Structure prediction request, 358 residues.
Amino acid sequence: MAWHRLMLRRSAEQTGFTLIELMVGMAVAVIVVAAAFTILTTTSKSLRANEQVVDTQQNLRMAMEMLVRDVKLAGFGSPAVPIGNCTSAIVPADQNVAGVDTGPDSVQLLVPTIRSSGANRWTLKLPTTTAGTTSITLQPGAVADMVSSGLTANTSYISIGGSATALVTGLNAGASTINVAIPPPLWFQVEDRVYLLQCIRYRIVPAPDPGNLCGGSSPCLTRGVAGVTVGPNAEAPIADGIEDLQLAYACDGCVAAINSGIPDRVVDDQNGSNSFDQADFLSNVPWTAAPLTPDKIQLVQVALVARQSKNDQGFGEVNNAKVGSSGMAVTGDHTLAADGTHRRRMLVKTVETRNVGM
Prediction:
């Protein structure tokens, strides 16, 4: 009897799981694993979506900062003669001057280029005198560097500190000298900056970008000398995913009925509202006939739209595009069609010109 009770006790202690218990345990394990996988997938997609949003916003801000900087500098040291395609400090190019735009605008700006640091910085090595000069000497290697950036004799203009602008009549890259005519009594000191004046174009390259200018990341915003494809002056992408650029301009002296069309340091009241408002910004204007000429422009309203570089796949397990953008009114002159696969961000900034018309 003792032996029988011992065997029963051992049998009870060795009892395993039943089939039902195993099935329940497996079902619970599958649910836990599936939940964990879903959380992992959702988290991963959320991180990727957030990264795309951050990249889009960064590209948008960077593009805006570069464009705004050049608008502010447009006309700095202008010699009042055409340089490249720039017949004025600002050359607006509305996409459709006849009416509502169907695509992005572009603009060309006369801006100063400078290398302000390094051994070959574009600064004077030797001072000039009040007697005037016909030659200036820059830091070693500076003129060669300027040549690689587009400096040529008899076509390029330089500005010394924004105070004296002159045509380059000759240059010696080895000696780092430039031949210019600086009249008296102007004089300059060592390390005064020497700027190369260039006509720079900003434009949008839309998809599908057959020339591959955007490097597979179309649309993009490019910056460079119009038509140049190689070298430092070539039009090159500065921000990926920039889908639209719209520009509007407020001017002083553009309306003949206001102060007889004479600039009076007050932006023209285009709609007679006796206040400055959105209607005072002009688009669909060729800016080629007086009094509507670019030298009257005082404010530039810049509107940029950026979109994600890749389709947004949502947060679920299925890889289908979930999030996009509805139609977007960029300005009163242009509305972007809906895009069901990309999120968009828009940034608008008004810039005061500093050198235009001076």
Remarks:
- The chain has a mean pLDDT of 87.
